[in-house]
Amino acid sequence: MRKIEVEVERMRARAQDKLMTKLASARHSADEKRATAELKRNRAAARTAEQAEHIRRTGRVPPSFGCWNWCS
Questions:
Q1: Using CA atoms, how far apart are residues 31 and 23, in angstroms rounded to an integer?
Q2: Most exposed among 27, 29, 38, 71, judged by the fewest C-beta atoms under 10 Å?
Q3: Which positions fall inside the Remorin C-terminal domain (predicted)?
Q4: Residue 65 domain flag
Q5: How many domains does the chain have?
Q6: Is residue 10 part of a domain?
Q7: CA Rg, the chain, in Å?
Q8: Do residues 54 and 61 touch, judged by C-beta distance below 8 A?
Q9: pTM for this one?
Q10: 64 lies in a domain?
């Protein structure tokens, strides 16, 4: 009887370790995706700031800022 309890406990521990590894992997993946999204957002903000500065400096909207830009 004791041998079966030990085996069950060992199986439970393995399952727990496997679950913790899977959760850590998911957390790591989510952190990477979050960092990538933040980098993309920061680049877009910098690009927008550059365009705004160009418009302030020249008083004109750049040709690449046209309304047909989304079609290409």
A1: 12
A2: 71
A3: 1-63
A4: no
A5: 1
A6: yes
A7: 27
A8: no
A9: 0.63
A10: no
Q: What is the pLDDT of residues 1-20, one digit of tens each?
A: 899 999 999 999 999 999 99
Tokens of 46: 């910098």
d(CA 64, CA 70): 10
Read off the pLDDT of residues 5-62 as tens digits, 9 standing for 90 and up: 999 999 999 999 999 999 999 999 999 999 999 999 999 999 999 999 999 999 888 7
Distance (Å, rounded) from C-alpha 72 to C-alpha 53? 25
What's the chain's length in residues?
Answer: 72
pLDDT recorded at residue 69 = 55
Q: Structure tokens of 13? A: 């521990």
Q: Using H for helix, E for strand and C for coil, what is the string for the chain?
A: CHHHHHHHHHHHHHHHHHHHHHHHHHHHHHHHHHHHHHHHHHHHHHHHHHHHHHHHHHCCCCHHHCHHHHHC
Domain residue limits at 20:
2-55
Whether the CB-CB separation of 51 and 62 falls below 8 Å is answered with yes
